[in-house]
Amino acid sequence: MAGQTTIEQLPTTFEEFNEKRKKSFMKVKDYREQGGHIVGFLCSYTPLEFIDAAGVAAVGLCGMSDETIPAAETVLPSNLCPLIKSTYGFALTEKCPFTYFSELIVGETTCDGKKKMYELLADKKPVYVLQLPQGQGRAWASDAWYEEMLLFKKKLEETFGHTITDDDLRQAAINRNALRRALTDLYEVQASMPPALHGVELMSTLLSGTFSFDIKAFTQQINDRVQSCRRELEKGTNAVDPSAKRILLTGCPSGGLIKKVGETIARNGGVIVCLDDCTGERTNRMLVDPEADDIVREIGDRYLRINCSVMTPNDGRIEHTREMVKKYHVDGVIDTVLTACHTFNVESARMSAAMERDNTPYMKLETDYSQGDSAQIDTRIAAFIETIS
Question: Band of the pLDDT at 8, cuts 50, 70, 90?
Answer without folding.
Answer: low
